[in-house]
């Protein structure tokens, strides 16, 4: 039974007071809810790590992810097109290492924007996924790819 003060408690309490809910029906509904709902996977798919003089992108998902990385200021001024080629793909359960010097617009105090997407039949799906990392602060950031 839900805790007192909880909105669900009041719904259950009201239904029970009206004789519309028995303990058996509560148990059956609870079991059906538990069986019908599959667990939600919150494990991250894509991780970016600032490590020494490189950016490490890890694809922890079961499908390939495509990406592009720009320095943040440059990213705000250019038009680019997402592509689904081997050279910008991170295969499933794999990683790529990008030296900072290979990132367009990179400076030692740079923040980089990492865009990623999935492809279907050689065409990009949504490309509105991104995050920003500071290249002078070691650390890792992970996200769930949709």
Q: What's the short version?
A:
The chain contains three helices and ten strands; from the N terminus they run H-H-E-E-E-H-E-E-E-E-E-E-E. By secondary structure, it is of the alpha+beta class.
Write a structural description.
Helices cover 20% and strands 34% of the residues. Mean pLDDT is 79; it is low at 38-42. The chain has helices at 7-17, 23-36, 72-75; strands at 46-51, 54-59, 65-71, 89-90, 94-99, 111-117, 119-120, 123-124, 129-134, 139-143. With 146 residues, the protein is of the alpha+beta class. The protein has two domains: 7-36, no CATH class; 46-143, Sandwich (Immunoglobulin-like), CATH 2.60.40. The radius of gyration is 23 Å and the shape is elongated.
Indicate the CATH topology of the largest domain: Immunoglobulin-like
Question: Which bin fits the share of residues in helices?
Answer: 10-25%
Integer count of domains: 2
Structural class: alpha+beta
From the structure provided, what is the oligomeric state, counting identical versus distinct chains?
single chain
Report on the biggest sheet: 4 strands, antiparallel
CATH class of the largest domain: Mainly Beta
Spatial strand arrangement across the major sheet: 5-2-1-10
In whole angstroms, how far apart are the ends? 35 Å
Radius of gyration (Å): 23 Å
Number of helices: 3
Give me the secondary-structure topology:
Blueprint: H1 7-17, H2 23-36, E1 46-51, E2 54-59, E3 65-71, H3 72-75, E4 89-90, E5 94-99, E6 111-117, E7 119-120, E8 123-124, E9 129-134, E10 139-143
Antiparallel strand pairs: 1-2, 1-10, 2-5, 3-4, 3-6, 6-9, 7-8
